[in-house]
Amino acid sequence: MKQLFSFIALVFVFIAFSSFSQKKQRIQIDAWEELEAFHLSIALTFHPAEDGDFEPIKNDSDELVEAAQNLLKAKLPAYFEKSESENLKTELQTALQKLVQQSKDLHNLVQTKKVTDAILLEELNNLHSTYHHIEELNNNAKK
Fold it and tell me: What span, in angstroms and rounded, lies between the C-alpha atoms of 111 and 59?
């Protein structure tokens, strides 16, 4: 009886570990590090601006440009390569190029030091919308 119980417990542990390992592997496969890096950069600038704090965007607009450029240059995750939709890949490339251009435009506005907070917020909103469009394309590619 003890042997049967030990065997069942061992099988249970093996199944649990196997399931966890597969989930961890899937998370690693689904990760797009450059997209996460851009997400962090936009979150640290956009959300404070929503609350009226424009110092983060004024101080770190160059980081948004760098993160957007890194995202454009990055190798696409495997699930994009497996996607049979060329339209999806084309739309993604267009959106990534737009993200880079919007980031550069925003950075140039910040550098003038003559831009109003209202214009900064409008441009940040546009950039944020483009980022969310890329996230949507990314999620569609995973399906």
Answer: 10
> Of 110, 127, 107, 143, nearest to 47 (Cα)?
127
Q: How many DSSP H helices and E strands does the chain contain?
A: 6, 0
C-alpha distance from residue 8 to each of 3, 18, 19 (Å): 9, 15, 16
Q: DSSP letters along 9-41, please?
A: HHHHHHHHHHHHHHHHHHHHHH--HHHHHHHHH
Q: Does residue 83 surpass a pLDDT of 80?
A: no
Q: Exposed/middle/buried for 18, CB within 10 Å: 0-12, 13-18, 19+?
A: exposed
Q: Tell me how far the alpha carbon of residue 90 is from its chain's centroid.
A: 18
Q: Does residue 20 carry a pLDDT above 70?
A: no
Residues 6+ apart with CB under 8 A from 98: 130
Residue with tokens 């542990």: 13
pLDDT band at 143 (very low <50, low <70, confident <90, very high): confident
pTM higher than 0.85 for the full model?
no
**Domain range annotation of the chain:** 1-30, 32-142
CATH class of residue range 32-142:
mainly alpha
